[in-house]
Write a structure and sequence with these properties.
This protein has 175 residues and is α+β, with helices and mostly antiparallel strands. The protein is built from 3 helices and 7 strands. The structure holds nickel (II) ion (NI).
Length: 175
């Protein structure tokens, strides 16, 4: 079990397109377990490999209250199942304290592989649909504020920068 440091926006590792996973070995299983530990510790409902500095196509998600329904998606591919969109307030462990409304398709089909390389499919709606789309964006070098208008995005990132400055100032005071 390991809790890994989470890469913070606007680190360039969050804007790369990640590589497909080709080897389904013990290292991959360990990485998935560490990503899950990191997500639960944060706490968050999803985490993508680039958020812990690995440029590979793998995400972990658990939207359950009890935190006992971990799902690992390797090489996920999404297809919208409806033209209907829903708007949900999203946050991200790489942009702590920032919450903004993002519009996305309300139902998607996920085709992915499990940690043994076995293909599976899952239809996602509601929070799961939001979450998986948010995480797959990370694999394509995108964060949720990239969905906002330029004005809203610059407001959100300015707020994040201000928060960081305050945190640094408080840390200095305590040192
Ligand atoms: Ni995120």
């Amino acid at each position: 079990m390991a809790i890994l440091p989470i890469v913070q926006y606007p680190d360039s590792r969050l804007s790369r397109v990640c590589e497909p996973v080709t080897e389904f070995n013990e290292d991959l299983k360990t990485l998935a377990a560490d990503m899950a530990d990191t997500m639960y510790d944060a706490p968050g409902v999803g985490l993508a490999a680039p958020q812990i500095g690995r440029c590979i196509r793998m995400v972990v998600v658990d939207i359950s209250e009890e935190k006992n329904q971990l799902k690992v998606f390797v090489n996920p591919v999404l297809t919208p199942l409806t033209e209907e969109a829903t708007t949900c307030e999203e946050g991200c462990l790489s942009l702590p304290g920032i919450y903004e409304k993002v519009e996305r398709p309300s139902r998607v089909l996920v085709k992915a592989q499990d940690l043994d390389g076995q293909p599976f499919e899952m239809e996602c709606d509601e929070l799961m649909a939001v979450c998986i789309q948010h995480e797959v964006d990370h694999l394509n070098g995108k964060v949720f504020v990239d969905h906002l208008s330029q004005l809203k995005k610059s407001r959100a990132t300015a707020k994040l920068a201000k928060r960081r400055k305050e945190e640094a100032r408080n840390a200095k005071k305590q040192a």
